[in-house]
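User: Hello, can you help with two protein structures?

Assistant: Certainly.
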Amino acid sequence: MTDFNPGSMPYSPEAERAVLAALMADQDLALEVLASVREHYFYNPTHRAIFRACCELEKSGTAIDLVSVAGKFSSSSNMMDTIVDICADLPTMANTKYHVRQLKNYSTRRQLISASQTIAKNAMQDTSNDTSALLDRSEHAILSIGEGNVTKDFVRAGEMLDTSLEDLGRMRTGSSIVGISTGFKRLDAYTTGLHPGEFIIIGARPAVGKTSLALNMATNIASSGRSAGFFSLEMQSKEIMNRLIYSTSRIRPVQVVNNLISEVQWGRIVKETRNRLESMPLYIDDSAAMTPVEMRAKARRLKHRAGLDVLFIDYIQLMSCGADRENRQQEVTQISRDLKAMAKDLDITVVALSQLSRKTTGHNGPPMLHELRESGSLEQDADVVAFLYDPNAEARYEQEGPTRRVSLILAKQRNGPTGEIPMFFDSEITTFEEADLAY
């Protein structure tokens, strides 16, 4: 793409000349062009050199016109004739905007051609047995073209004032949700909702209900119209769907297994469950032993295909890096960093579950942050660390039945307070509810 070879790449010489004419003919048009055009939008190397000269003049505070631009080139280059010829056109604001759009479109097409050629070359030369990294690089090369063409500009502070005042007003009156609601009011009050770019860890010892809590949150998020993805590395999608049906309909497994539901009741349950779940933007992937690279590629595809706001991962200890590591701690450290980077790069919230061993501490109290430190840099990378705690998860089922009291402990929050939220967990229908404050 650097060598000028007419016909080898799509471009419009007329559009390139029109945009350059606008730059040199009118100060207002020049500001419009400089704010929205990049050097690589020009394919003709002469046009690209003229645009670069205009940018240099702008940086130095010199007025951009025919004479000043020509002065950036040697007298022997015959550039003056070319610049005079370009300036013969009389641009308008409307025409300039149209030609700028043309430049962007042609540039995108050229980038797609170049990226495709690079992908083909890499695929021919790749000799590894694992092509997941190659796929991820290829997807990133294509999708980043569109992302790179999105330009932001200054926004006057006054234009953002109403939104900020509305957020603060909601917080003042107790409606503290600024991000995406989890469906749990007290949790939202602590966190102001889930925010793009955040990496959140929910840790728990076995049999406490961390998968159920994550599914409850994902369902609540999707019910509000936001898109949620759920990587289930432990359970099959059929098991996940059964849990969703139980929690949505409030029917208990024993009622289904023992046929304790009448045809009329079952018809109502099927109808209500379909109405809630069928069109819900909740997406489940039950692939096992995934790597961060594979997850990022799938999440990126989902975001571009259907949108993605929050991604749940169940759970970190079942992931691998797909490469040899000296020890498991180094591997989990790399996984943690990759998940944090994915949250930032895709502008989504990543909620990862973490399994804590019953023997990780020498005390009988709630889990502590240092239990995560034993798993690499999880605590350091996470914006929020929460622990789901039930001191007698197994014994209480026999003593009190399926519903038991648990605590959701916010042990770390980078941008907010920590605290403890009492909850009830019904293990049969896999449903969490926040306990009354009197509890």
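That covers the first. Now for the second protein you mentioned:
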Amino acid sequence: MVYLTLCFRAFYICPFMSATSCSRCNMAEFQANISDPKDCKAYKRTLSESDSSALIGRSIGDEIDGIFVSLPGYRLQITGGSDGSGIPMRPGLAGGQRKRMLLSHSTGFRPQRPGQRKRKMVRGKELGPEITQLNLKIIEYGPKTVEELLGAEG
């Protein structure tokens, strides 16, 4: 018996598998890197599937509430991220797809000599289920300190 499974906007035929056993159907979990510009520290936090699904569809530069990363009263800005292959997100590329772009000194490429350009793979600015790492910056502080809320994980 063959089941037809819906996996992230595409149909895959998974022979001899149930609809829930397809490995591509798992929801994304983001590894959030939260930077604190005031203290010059960074904190890591793994977001649950429910918090991750609430962030899907947001873009680089959007502001989110800190409740998603256990920081109530805080406001955070999405500054970037990368997918499971390590391909970085780029603010100038619309959507969430991967694309090969000719880059000079910018996100995704650091030239070795002046004027060097290279065609590199980058991902669009929109968050999707393929993203595994999410970079956030604190822009508005809450009543408690970040150290109290997140602990000494930094």
